[in-house]
Amino acid sequence: MNPSRARPIPASSSPTPAADSALVLNLAAALLAAALLRFFRLGAQNLWIDEVFTWRSADIGSPLGWPRLVENMHGPLLSVILHTWCGWVGESEWALRLPSAVFGVALVPVVAWLGARWVGRETVIPAAWLAACSPFLVWYSQEARNYSLLMLCACLSLLALLRLRERFSAGRLAGFLAATAAGLLSNFSFALIAPLQLKWWFTRPVSARRRLAEAGLAAAILVLVMTPWLVQATRVLDWSRLRPAREARADEPPLRGPNTFHLAGVPFAAHAFSVGYTLGPSLRELRADPSLRPVARHAGELAVTALVFGALVALGLRALARRRRLGDGLLWLLAPALLVSYMALHNFKVFHPRYLAVAAPGFILLLAAAFADLRPRGRWVAGLAVGALWSVSLVQHYVSPRYAREDYRTVAARIVAEARPGELILAANTADLMFYYYRGSLPVRSFWLGFAADSARLEDKLDEAMSGTRGVWVVMSRPEDLDPRGAFVRAMARRHPGATAHARQGVTWWHVTESDLKPASGVRRGP
Fold first, then answer.
1. Mean pLDDT taken over the chain
2. CA-CA-CA-CA torsion for 107, 108, 113, 115, nearest 10 degrees?
3. Do both 461 and 359 map to the same domain?
4. How confident is the model at residue 173 (pLDDT cuts 50, 70, 90)?
5. Are residues 27 and 107 in the same domain?
6. Is residue 253 part of a domain?
7. Which pLDDT score, from 0 to 100, does residue 160 have?
8. In the structure, how many helices (H) and strands (E) does the chain have?
9. Which residues lie below 8 Å from residue 248, measured CB to CB, with a gap of 6+?
10. By residue range, what is the domain housing residue 412?
11. Where are the alpha helices (H) located in 237-351, listed in sequence order?
12. What is the end-to-end Cα distance of the chain in Å, rounded?
């Protein structure tokens, strides 16, 4: 069946002028809300480590050469955009994040349009409001990463494919290929919607021979465009890990922390899609304590979230089934989750909700279908429940230090104000961020927290790193993966008892003065 032709619904089959007016007003209001939510305090929070990787890959202020661009397999298109944009306006947090905010605003009408073409016209208004106010979408619209652009390209590609199903033409094929190539150049995780795209392509109402010929043409063009990055991927990534029969080596460490995949990751992704990362346990709580204690502390809000969105998901699945869209919806939502889970289980890619971002617009349209099928009173009740949860999440996103990103900006400002000539900064797991935030005269020396696994080696490396200086500012963040037992903190307390540890919003730092360094000089510590 042609997915662009939904079973007609009497309430929307013959829209009245009043209905058209209400639709236009709601779209305009949703766009305004989306802009306000995405531009509000856009540069207030610190960058986090992946945003600094984006900043580095954009080579702002320097020529962005082709070899450098090809090396970037995780978003070369955004690098080009930021290189050009920030070359004009600078590289502040606000400037780096503004393109993502713009893409996030543009996503609202595109999701609404996709909902109209795929599900039905009655989903336009709820889809627009849900896309405008979703904390998950707001989060990635306020991040200097490629996920906002990725979701926009995914929706544009699917829209173009629906139009191509109606009538094949060179112009429509070019539009589909442009959106698809842009999505792949935004992030390779765009390919996770390939199962849905293939289903829509190969169920077009034309002959099998024609479908195959046109598919071969489209694939050849996309491979040609992506060849430099595909070649780079074969060089850098260990694709052998994805073999079904492969067994991990005994000495093969997980990509991050104690494991790359955890069963709790699936409900965590569902929770993030529903209310974002700022309702329930914070990311910092979950990283610091992998037990169930953080979950237990937030049991009430987690239960309410599960109740509200569980009911809406059930209603949405029923609404899609009534329109004969259930298979498409499950393919859109479940295929990315299964593929990312498989990659995580094979230690190829860490499981995280952001790698499922291409499925987020599908989740929005699932909720929109549920709202469209509710009676007016039920729609108001559901809207108030979702609005209350999202309001709390968004307020905490903007103002709560508990959910805020690590505050390297404050630490760097303090070092600038108090540093003395001859001192240095020892960046333990923070080197990239300190290079961005610290604009003073002290040298920044990177220190690998993995040395903490061997106490004797840790002592030797600290002696080596701190030698020949009149003082050291030690800055540490996110020790959970490389030093989950806190050996580095204990070593600092033992070696330099006069250097008090200070902590602010996920960042710990010490100022080791020259007098506190002298007793450690030339002394071998540890067993």
1. 90
2. 100
3. no
4. very high
5. yes
6. no
7. 97
8. 24, 5
9. 346, 347
10. 408-520
11. 265-275, 283-288, 293-297, 299-322, 326-345
12. 72
